[in-house]
Amino acid sequence: MTVATVYSKVVVTGGFAVGKTAFVAAASEIEPLTTEAEITVEAGAKPTTTMALDFGRVTLDEGAALYLFGTPGQPRFWFMWDDIVRGAIGAVVLVDDTPPAESLAAVDYFERFGVPFVVAVDRSQGVGAHTVDEVRAALRLLPAVPVVHCDVRERDAVRDVLSDLVEHATRRRPNRGRHE
C-alpha cells in the first residue's frame, strides 16, 4: 500500500539579509526558485535582494512534505506577504545578529493573523548571536513560541527547525504568541 504524501505550505520570513534564501536553498530537495535581483542602492555587503519570493520543497518523512515560500525582506515588498502567507500552516521567523527587535514586524504580522510560528536564530556567521532568552525578551514572546538556533546553510539544522514548526503548528490553537 502506498502512502499518499500530504503537502503543507510554510513561510520563511524575517528582515532584510537575514538568510531566508539560504534557508530555503539548504532545505530544498529540488532546485529552489529564487527571484534575486541586483540591489540598486548601497545596502552593505549584500549585492542582491529577493524581489518576490523563494520557493523550495522538502520531504520530512514518508507522507509529509512542505512547500517553502521565502518572503522578501525589504519593507517595500511587504505588500506581497498576504498572498504568500495565505494557506500556510506556519512560519519560520529568522533572526540574525542584528538586534532581535528588528524582527518585530514579522512577529506582529503572524500574531495578528493567528499563524503559528517559530523563531530561528541564525548562527551561520560563526558569531555569538543572541541567546534564546535575549531573543524571547526582545520579541516579548510567550513561552509556548519555540526559539531555536540554527545555521541556515546546513540542511539538517534547517530540517530540524521545520520539524519544530510542524510540531508546534499541529499542537497550537490560534492565540497570541507574545506578551502584551
Distance N to C terminus: 50 Å
Query: What count of helical segments does DSSP give?
Result: 5
Spell out the helices and strands N to C: EHEEEEHEHEHEH
Q: Tally the beta strands.
A: 8
Strand order of the largest sheet: 4-5-1-6-7-8
Largest sheet, if any? 6 strands, mixed
- The pLDDT mean sits at 82
Class per helix and strand makeup = alpha/beta
CA radius of gyration: 15 Å
Low-confidence stretches: 175-180
How helical, in percent, are the residues?
25-40%
Note the overall shape: globular
Measured by DSSP, the beta-strand proportion falls in 25-35%
Describe this structure in words.
The protein is of the alpha/beta class. It is globular and about 50 Å long. Helix content is 26%, strand content 27%. Helix 1 crosses helix 5. Residues 175-180 have low confidence and may be disordered. The protein has helices at 20-27, 81-85, 104-112, 132-138, 155-171; strands at 6-14, 36-38, 48-50, 54-61, 64-70, 88-95, 117-122, 147-150. The longest helix is centred in the C-terminal third of the chain and has 17 residues, at 155-171.
Keywords:
alpha/beta, six-stranded mixed beta sheet, two-stranded antiparallel ribbon, 180 residues
